[in-house]
Structures are given as C-alpha cells and as structure tokens.
Amino acid sequence: MHRAVPIARLDDILNSERSLTQEEVDARLNQYGRNDIVEVPTSSRWALLLDTAKDPMLWFLLGIATLFIFLGDRVEAAILFVAAVPLIGMDLYLHRRTRASTEGLSSRLAVQANVVRDGEAAEIAATELVPGDLVLLSAGQNVPADGILIRGELIQVDESALTGEAYPVRKRPLGKLDQSIVPVPVDTAHWIHAGTRLLTGTATVRIVYTGAETIYGDIVHSALLGSRERTPLQAAIANLVVMLLIAATILCLALAWVRLRQGFGIVDAVLSAVTLAVAALPEEFPVVFTFFLGVGVYRLAQRRALVRRAVVVENIGRVSCICSDKTGTITEGQLSLTHRYPNNDVSDEQLLSVAAFASRSETDDPLDLAILHVAPTVLSHHSLVMTFPFTENRKYETAIWRKPDGTLTAATKGAPEIIFAMCSFAENERIKWETRVAELAKAGHKVIACAERSITDSAWVGGEPSREFGFVGLLAFEDPVREGVTEAIRNCYEGDIHVVMVTGDHPATAEAVAREIGLGQGNPKVIEANQLDALIQQGGAAMMRVDVIARAVPSQKLSLVRGLQSAGEVVAVTGDGVNDVPALQAADIGIAMGQRGTRSAREVATIVLLDDNFRTIIRAIAEGRQLFRNLKLSFAYLLMIHIPLVITAALIPLAGYPLLYLPVHIVWLELIIHPTALLVFQELPTNERLDPIQKVQHPRFFNQREWWVIAIVGALMTLTIIYGYVRSLGVGHEVEHARAMALVTLSFVSAMLTLVLSGLSNFMSRIMVGATIALALLLVQFPTLASLLHLAPLHLDDLMLSAVCALGIAMIVVFGRFRVQSH
Fold first, then answer.
1. pTM score of the predicted model
2. Does residue 642 carry a pLDDT above 80?
3. Band of the pLDDT at 219, cuts 50, 70, 90?
4. What is the pLDDT at residue 278?
5. 336-478 CATH fold
6. What does the alpha-carbon distance between residue 298 and residue 269 come to, in Å, rounded to a whole number?
7. So what CATH class is 2-38+109-224?
8. Which percentage of the chain shows pLDDT scores above 70?
9. What's the CATH code, domain 232-302+620-815?
10. N or C, which end of the chain is more exposed by having fewer CB within 10 Å?
11. What are the CA-CA distances from residue 425 to residues 422, 451, 472, 473, 533 (Å)?
C-alpha cells in the first residue's frame, strides 16, 4: 500500500534533513492551520435540551400523560411520566457518550512533541506542529502527526489503534524520493501515523500531514458525524400510535356531539367522550415497547453483550449479514505454539531451547513470547554476548550465548527458506522439510525454522555467523479458533445470515481458518481487499458469494459495509481499533470488543461484547429476534382487545343506548390488559436456534394475513359484545346486566387470547389467564361488589354464551395461523 506525498508541501526539504526556520513555521501554520486532530465539541444544557427534544416518542409520552391529568386519571399519568424517565436518561447518556468517544479518541494522541527548528531541538505543544517539521521520537512516545521516517534503526510501532492488529509493525527509513512522479507515492513501511506509539528505537520523522488530514483525524471526523436514526420498528410504532390517536380524537369529538344532539345533556356528553378517550388512547404501545427494550438490554447483558443503545435490541434481530474480524473474535487472538518437529536425534526440549536462545521478551513480539512461555528455563544459566535482531529484509534473528563451560553457541530462528540455506542437509532431506513447511503453511500455520552451531573464541571476530549451522527443527504456530464458533457459523447459515470474515492476514491463512469454522459450507470463497471495489460494482448477489476478505484495510472495511447495505442487507460489523470506528458507525449494528477494543471503538459501537466471542453475537441476534416475536404477540393482543373495546365504547352510545363503559370499568380492563401485555409475552422462552428470516425491502410489523386475522377477531368481538349487550338489556332496560355481559365477554376473550398467543408457556401466562377469569366472576357474580361497580350478576346462559364466544374467537386465531415469524 502507498500514500502520496505532495511535493509542494515539503518543497526543498523533501530529500534533506534540514529543519524549518521560525519564519517557515509561521507561514505553514497560517497555510495549514493548527495540528488539531480531535476537536472536543462544546457541551451545554441548552444543547442537551435541544438534543432531547428531537425524540418524538418522548413528546408523545409526555403529551399523553398531560392529557390524562386533564382527564382526571392521575395514576395513568404517573405511569406515563415514569415511562418517560428511561427515554430522557437514554438521551442524556447518548449526549455524554459523544463526548466520551471524542475523549477516547484524544487519549491516543501526543500532547507534547520534540521538534528541531532553526537547527535546535525544542519541546512544543503537539498542536503547534506544521507540515515539514522534523520530529524526534523515542521508545514509548505517541506519534503527534503523520510523517515519513527518515532516520532510525530497529523501529517498531504499535499500530493497534489504527489496524486492530496487536503485532508490532516494523518501519524502515526512506531513502531519496523519486520526484518524477507527482504526487510521490510512499510505501506504508516508511510512514509513521498519528495515534500510534513507537515501541523500539529512536526515530526522526518528517511531518507531512497534520490535523484533519491525518489518517487518525479522518477517522475522528467520521466518528463525530455519526447520526441516530429510528429503527423500522420505532417508525412503525410511531405511525401506529399517530393513526390510533387521530382516530380516537375524531371518535371522542363525534361521540360528544351526537350525545348532545340526542338530548342526553352536557354531563353525559363529556362523560361519554372522557370514557372513550381513556379507552382509546394508545399509551400501551410505547410503554410496552420501552419495557420490552429494557428487558432485552438486561437479557443481553446476561449473555455478555453490553447494549449501548436500547433500540438496537430490536434492530439486531434483523441482521442478515455479519462482517467479523478474524483475530480475537473468531480466533482467540493469541499465537500458540501448536506443532513441534525436531530434526533427527533432537528432542523437543532441545528444539525449544534453541528457539528461546534466539527470542527476546523485551520486543513484546507475540511469536517470541509464545516460545518463551513454553521453553525450558535454560537462559538463566547462559550469558548473552550479542544479538543480531530480526528485520523484514533479513527474516531471521541470531543470538550468540556463552555457555556455563565458557564456550560460545549461536542460535538462530526465522523464515524456513532462509534458515535452510544456512544449514547442511543430507541428500533429499531438505526437500522433505520444505514439503512439511508447505503443508503447514497451507493449513494456516505460521512456521519458523531453528538452527544452531558452536563457535570457538579464537575463530569468532564478532560478526554474525551465516553458514555451517545444524538444522534443529520446525515450530508451527496458530491462533486457535474460539470454542463454539463453528456451531455459531452453522447456526448463522440455518438462520439465513451470511458471514464475511475480514482480516489483514494472507489469503492462504485466512482460507485455512475459514475452512476450519465452516465458512462457505466448508468451501469458502476468498478474495483480497483490492478486488473489493470491482466486486461492489457487480452488485449484492456477487458480494453475498464472498466468505473471506483478506489483506483488508480500514477504508475497504467501510466500503464493504456500505456495499452490503446498498444491496439491501442489514449489516452487523465487529471492530476493536480506532480504524474500525467509521465501519462501526456506518453499520446497522456496530459491535466492539470489550476486552481488547480501544475506548473509541467501544464508545461508538452500539453493542460491546464483554467476552469478545463471535458466539455471543449469534446469541444477541437470537435475543433480538425473540424480542421482535414477543413484541409482535403483545401488540397483536393489544390490537385484538382494543379494537372491540374502542368501537363498542363509541357505537353503543352513538346508537342512543346508555353508556356501555363507565370510567371504573375502563380501569378494570386496563388492570387486565396492562400486565398481560407487559409480563406475559416478554417472558416467553428464548429459542437460541436462528430460524430463517424473510428479507423484504420495507419490513412490516404484521403481514397481510396477520392483519386480516386481527381485523376479523376485532370485528367478531365487536359484534359479540353488541349482541350480548342488546340481548341482556332486554325489554326491562337492565343496563347493569348488559354492562356486566359486555365486561365478562371482554374478560373471557382476553383470557383465551392470552392462552392461544402464549401457549401457556410460562408461569405468568398461566397466572394471568386464571386471574382474568377469576376477577371477572368475582366482580360480577358477587352482588355486593357488582352493585359498587354498577353491574348485575349474570345468569348461567349468559356465562355460557360468553365462554362459547371466547372459545370461538380463540379458534379463529389458531386456525388463522397467527404465528410469529422472524422479520
């Protein structure tokens, strides 16, 4: 990979080590501005209020609560005010999260910088750096801006915040630039980036880009531009609530006007309108939605997935494609020594000892650490004389040690082809070992060869020996796949979820891991990231045939997410570094790693995995789909009950009959409806198996058949209640008897709907079915209680009629196949 250097920016200092003069610094500061990579947004109470006021669901809850106060129902108003508290808290949290994300991004940047100006070294604020400055870096310091390494030895940089990879990255100084090509392309091996940290060596860097022009600054800009959009379910609920609210308002006004025209008086007209308003206002829907989201957040936390935005509990159930990192999510993220192949007459212990002699713990190289972790403790008995370190060009490392008896030994390890050339083999022996190396590499292993030789003090003049080594053996390393990932991948395919593994690894290594976990049904299609743009142009079908993208860089990961979204996929993406922030921000579900992820990635993501395990993602998706199924059942119950309740509360008074429901009756019904909708369906057992989902361009809460079932049930219940009311009213105009018939019928139907929709699959469903029937019989059949509620006990034939009607309506729901499907 290359990044261009604009010649005009560096002018005559492009190929020199001259420092800037103060006059040049002032001119460049005026031209390019300060090195402000992260600008913390201002925060005020007014800004917080404006941000909170953008939530329409909050305004609805507060508005309905205020209306209930005017209607005199202070208990219902209090419930709605309490329900608004978590929404306000969520807005406060999101506002704080924006600042925390910015602070997390700032924490990776240098505050001070050692710079050479006018030929003298000085320490200045990092924000005062300009393009062309000559910066001096020592081990452990953060890099203040993007620049080119022009001098330094054994330079290793921690780029984990940008790349997500934990391995140190070696950098090498750049020689003369070829100015015949404009702008001048420079390989990434020569670039030192802001947000990274120098691990080893002392570096001299020529600054090229500052502020927002740095790679880190571009990532920050993407993070701070993120927006919050409502999920399809939120939009559907908002539309449903608005529709019901408009219908309820029209009905209330019409009922009041008709009752006045019928000569019932102003008190009756107001009472009729108020009663209908209490019955018709759809406050249950946002309350149930908020409550279910809270339950979903709690359940996901139990599954080690921390939700940072409650609404994503719903959205994650719609995921159709997962773009997952390999290292640390699918694999454990740690190099492990898995295979040892000692040469003839060499023991495992001898092989590990030679490898340990050529390893150094101070480099923090994962390969060296893996060797030293399992190697015998022999180093303490030897003294190190000299080290010839590993470099990208050399591809091997050699160390000279003095044994306890005073003799010298040289140990070396590195790329097999290099070590083989330094050793002597018997006929065909080298071919055998080369074949084994090829087999291990194809299986996704990182392979090194080890060798040693003795050195006499008189013959050694201090140089590095490069021949006459004795081959000791091979060591093979792998990053083990996490437990349960293979089963999780299989579960994804069963649930119509496509998984794309994104990694910076070599294609052969990536393919080996993909085969092991079952990507592509065991035959994964692997492409390199430089083929991604052409693939995106081919469309969604071509993209969904790819299982692995190797050699990926941050910008390509973002392109992958956007390409899949443009093809209609709901995309979840994992990330752990600052480089992943744009992709996490753009994805429908951004999932950060809690154990090894950077603070910026965790703050921007909507979900944080506490165990960094791919299997947890699948469990979270299963929980999201279960939430949708539960909400669908709860809303179906609410609609089937509310439709006949509202229509009969309006039609019977409009027809000139006495009021069907008094305010106390509405309270009774709400005491049944509220706990049923809130408690029964959210406790349904979670099915961790992912069922296939229906991919539609515009997801709907209910399909056409389900709407027909709801409409038919509502219409039949309405007719049943009206018939029972008129029948019980009789010639004697027994209003109390007629009201009791309507209320018992509604109660029995509510119990039967609860039974068939929940299947009595949990304790609360059984409690609510029994309590609903028992409460109806208690309040109606006991004369004292009935008289207090302006009711009269029912006859046996009335009860039988209500029970038969309830059973018949329940059968319609069953035969109408009102089952909840994945969305």
1. 0.62
2. yes
3. low
4. 64
5. Calcium-transporting ATPase, cytoplasmic domain N (3.40.1110)
6. 46
7. mainly beta
8. 79
9. 1.20.1110.10
10. N
11. 10, 12, 11, 12, 47
